[in-house]
Amino acid sequence: MQSDRFFKGSPLKRFFTMCIGAIIYGISIGLFLAPNHLAPGGVGGISIILNYFIPLGVGSLTMLINLPLLVIAIVKWGWRFLFTTVVAIIVSGVTADACAFFSAITENKILAAVAGGAVMGVGCGIVFRAGSTTGGTDIVTRLIKSKRPHLKLSVVMLFIDSAVAVLSGLVFKNADTALYSIIALTVFSKVLDMVLYGSDTARMVFVISEKSQDILDRLLNKVGVGCTILKGVSGYQGAEKDILLCAMKKQRLPSVKNAVLEIDDKAFMLVTRIQHEWFLL
Prior knowledge:
Elements: H1 2-7, H2 11-33, H3 42-50, H4 58-98, H5 109-129, H6 137-147, H7 153-171, H8 175-197, E1 202-208, H9 212-223, E2 228-233, E3 240-249, H10 253-263, E4 268-274
Antiparallel strand pairs: 1-3, 1-4, 2-3
Helix pairs in contact: 2-4, 2-5, 3-4, 3-7, 5-8, 6-7, 7-8, 9-10
């Protein structure tokens, strides 16, 4: 729960956390991927490809391509989402363009693919967990997730972005470039998954709250997670309490936490890991 307090603090703290993630995301493009013509999907990847033909910075192209997608974001999530997403796009775009004044960290494409994908996964994951996106296919992914919340963000993005990686090989007329881009995309997907969900397959969550019935209804009917009600007694006051026990795949954990905190921000949550062979859902 320590990391959740880091991402779920005051709005100002979340804002600065998001900016840090956007800077890391921009660095991955500007110092690892773009200099080596690696396009691991997304609007960033498309911008790297277009930069081969258009004399604009990769960050500037990313901001321009994101404009129509931001209109969709306004309609779907409102102006608050737009503000944080625009800031993330601008910060990452400016960072990527600023990195053009420096030499690439490495010119070895395999190292650039692995390191760039990992750094991008960390940056994107931080932005996501801070409640925003870096624009582009992130917006498309969130649209899909709103309809299919059980799907992994990383898997959805991997499917969408693979097409861009393949396109990079065609544009740069180099099959190796496409393969290195896919390596970067795969590393990005794995690291993003770890930042968002942790390294284990499943989680068990115990929830203690004065609003346990409301939380139970939300988890059952909105989030789609099953719960067991345990009867407990407070050791200090001797009062009876309902304890909610929920077992879920790790992809569901962020949705469960958000649902609980929206109803009772003082709720006590204990999250434990479950061995895969015990998890049958």
